[in-house]
Design goal:
The chain has 486 residues and is of the alpha/beta class. The protein contains 15 helices and 16 strands. Helix content is 33%, strand content 17%.
Length: 486
């Protein structure tokens, strides 16, 4: 439904979206559809050349694939196969023979999904319904009842409403690694950077610190580049991301009626449900599909102390079952394992020493006891996931808002504190009505917000909340002279 706004003699309100990855782009797309042409000015700040890619989908690495079938990815929640239909209509898979599995499931390249989102933003950009300001935001400050946004290119914009749709911060290296390897030519502190693995030589012995999705992508990328040296992947629990069961299965189980009130009760319930599913010939994948679908309600039913306990003790197990790897990536890993060229360890790092010849000597302590063991490597790649402890300090604009008391970390430590409407909550505990948070940084309140379709649904939710906040008397609008990029 399009909301009719009246702006007699005044400029339309300005909505600034900070971050133009999938979340910010989906939000802009749906907000433009809700408010109608010329009713609001939507400006997306994104330093990348195109909208829609972001950290997840702006990658040139051909082995980086979406980790769910294309039939479950969509910019439009009501059209679940929208992306797969677009692939067929545009011939986007013509140069990607490996995208389709033998049983017909499509796992497209991540860059292709980014292209799909960009293609649907392009008509809005061409019509002026959405503006892409290609610059990083360096500061956000109050400007009366609005917000002044300063960009790194020297321009400024006064916006009536802000939506923070930024990404998680990059990995945070363990102190022992950073002290020993800073400046090493084959120490990769952030594997998401373009050509991050280019310095690793074909026969190098590689240590990957982290065994989840990022670690799996690193292994597949090295394999595709012709790397033949031994690879060791290590994490404290040694858990690695699981693959898919692509046979038809409906989600199985029930986890919100009645809701679990403790992390322990939820864990027991999941285990019982998996056992029942197996007795009915259904795999654990279907149980986790139900958990994912009900994730928001499950999370909201848990007291804050139990949410913290779940994050501390159970999140690694959730991650490796929830975030599965594409069959193409799984095949590369299994091939390496079968030849002995890849090993996984459940261990912690005791010491890291850079030798004079740039060899890296590492001592490990096994998780389940036993004597420490050592390894020697030519390269170390960090794959430990987002550095949640640096959420507000990772970007100057967020740090400034935090210093002003406008933002704070959520009670679980996963993102930014927001209320049930996804409005930012300041240090005083009061929501900031004209700042919303969209996407993964809101998951401390909303729970499952790290993958589609949940991220898409949350972007629509926030677009609706922003639309409602804009439907206010024209006398409260900002005058045309205050709404400009200087």
């Amino acid at each position: 439904m399009t909301v009719p706004f009246q702006h007699k003699g005044l400029a339309p309100p300005v909505v600034a979206i900070i971050g133009g990855g999938f979340t910010g782009s989906a939000l802009a797309y749906h907000l433009a559809g809700l408010v109608g042409a010329a009713a609001v000015r939507i400006v997306v700040y994104e330093p990348r050349a195109t909208l829609g890619g972001g950290l997840a989908y702006d990658t040139a690495e051909p082995v980086h694939r979406i980790n769910v079938p294309a039939s479950r990815m969509s910019l439009i929640p009501s059209q679940g196969e929208h992306f797969q239909d677009w692939l067929l209509e545009t011939g986007a898979l013509d140069d990607d023979a490996e995208a389709t599995t033998p049983d017909g499931h499509v796992f497209a390249r991540r860059s292709t999904f980014g292209g799909y989102v960009a293609a649907h933003l392009q008509p809005l950009l061409a019509a002026g319904a959405v503006e892409h300001h290609r610059a990083r935001v360096v500061a956000i400050e109050p400007a009366g009842k609005a917000w002044r946004i300063e960009a790194e290119d020297g321009t400024s914009l006064v916006a009536d409403h802000l939506v923070l749709a930024t990404s998680h911060p990059g990995p945070q290296a363990p102190a022992a690694i950073e002290r020993a390897l800073a400046g090493h030519p084959r120490y990769v502190a952030d594997a998401t950077r373009p050509s991050a693995l280019a310095g690793i030589r074909p026969h190098d012995r590689v240590l990957i610190v982290g065994t989840g999705l990022t670690g799996a992508d690193i292994i597949a990328a090295l394999d595709a580049a012709g790397h033949s040296g031994n690879i060791t992947a290590v994490s404290r629990r040694g858990l690695r991301s699981r693959g898919h069961n692509l046979l038809p299965q409906e989600p199985f189980g029930e986890f919100v009626d009645p809701p679990s009130r403790t992390a322990r009760a939820l864990l027991r319930r999941v285990r019982r449900t998996i056992a029942v599913a197996e007795a009915h010939g259904v795999t654990w994948h279907a149980v986790f599909d139900r958990l994912r679908a009900q994730g928001g309600d499950i999370w909201r039913a848990l007291p804050v102390a139990e949410r913290r306990r779940l994050v501390r003790f159970l999140r690694p197990y959730w991650d490796v079952h929830r975030f599965r790897i594409a069959p193409q990536v799984e095949a590369a890993i299994e091939q390496r394992l079968s030849t002995g060229g890849l090993r996984f360890h459940a261990a912690s790092l005791v010491s890291v020493v850079r030798e004079p010849d740039d060899t890296i000597a590492v001592t490990f302590r096994p998780r389940r006891g036993g004597l420490p063991f050592k390894g020697r490597y030519d390269a170390v790649v960090l794959a430990t996931g987002p550095g949640h402890g640096r959420i507000l300090s990772s970007q100057p604009c967020l740090a400034g808002l935090a210093e002003a008391g406008v933002l704070k970390v959520d009670s679980v430590g996963l993102g930014i504190a927001v209320d049930a409407e996804s409005r930012a909550i300041g240090e005083d505990g009061v929501n900031v009505g004209d700042i919303h948070v969209a996407g993964p940084l809101a998951r401390g309140t909303f729970g499952e917000l790290m993958g589609l379709p949940q991220v898409t649904e949350h972007a629509v939710f926030v677009a609706e909340r922003v639309t409602a906040s804009l439907a206010r008397p024209a006398s409260q609008a900002v005058t045309a002279g205050e709404c400009r990029i200087d």
